[in-house]
Design a protein that fits this description.
Blueprint: E1 7-14, H1 17-27, E2 38-40, E3 43-51, H2 52-59, E4 67-74, H3 75-83
Antiparallel strand pairs: 1-3, 1-4, 2-3
């Protein structure tokens, strides 16, 4: 079984909304659950998610010179780290203990 490419959250800034739309149309990133572009002094900003292999293609796209792409975090690596925090034991097994950490509902 091959390992999936990492997912990278990127902060993208374009001069205007039309330029950002062109970049989105050309690169087809994952925009997350609630894609809300914000107008700032720098332009129109939006956080996008690219697989590692897509990010290289996005940087090489025709519309890439018109936007500023900044890698914010490796979401996959973050997820693996957070997953390590989840235990496998029943945190409610001891009736006298105060539960802590992440658990599952039964």
């Amino acid at each position: 079984m091959s390992e999936e490419p990492a997912v990278i959250r990127c902060h993208v800034v374009a001069e205007n909304a039309e330029t950002l739309r062109k970049f989105l149309h050309e690169t087809q990133p994952d925009v997350g659950c609630r894609a809300i572009a914000h107008r700032t002094q720098a332009g129109v900003e939006l956080d996008l998610y690219f697989r590692q292999d897509q990010l290289g293609q996005a940087r090489a796209s025709r519309s890439a010179p018109l936007v500023n792409i900044t890698e914010v975090e490796n979401v996959t690596e973050n997820w693996h780290t957070r997953k390590e925090e989840v235990g496998s034991a029943d945190r409610f097994a001891d009736r006298d203990a105060v539960p802590h950490g992440l658990g599952r509902k039964e």
